[in-house]
Amino acid sequence: MDNDALKLLMESMGEWALGNNQDPRGVISILITETIKFRDKLKEETGIILTVADTRIALDALQNYLVTDKLQKNLTSEQKTLTQIWIDRLTIFN
User: Fold this and answer.
1) Buried b (16+ CB within 10 A) or exposed e, 11-24
2) HEC profile of 4-15
3) What angle do CA 59, 3, 45 make, to 5 degrees?
């Protein structure tokens, strides 16, 4: 997954991140930055490639978590880790 594809995916999710009343750029920036760091570390340490599909599933899991306060159980380890990274960073951000 290249940086442009990741940025486009994250920006497309901006509206649900904070709704229409707030500027989602701060949240989107955090999601992009943390995803790129995780993607690069994952590839370097394990050789596993984080895909756009993995990122999309993690975004769906984040959205679900924000509504239900529960993390889905059917995620791969990479998807779950990325979702948890986002949850942790967004909690610190808020």
Assistant:
1) eebeeebeeeeeeb
2) HHHHHHHHHCHH
3) 80
DSSP letter (8 states) at residue 64: H
17: left (phi over 0), alpha (psi -120 to 50) or beta: alpha
pLDDT at 41: 96
Which tens digits make up the pLDDT trace of 64-88?
Answer: 998 899 998 999 999 999 999 999 9
Query: How far apart are the C-alpha atoms of 60 and 75, rounded to whole Å?
Result: 11
Nearest of 77, 47, 46 to residue 61 by alpha carbon: 77
pTM tops 0.85, yes or no = no
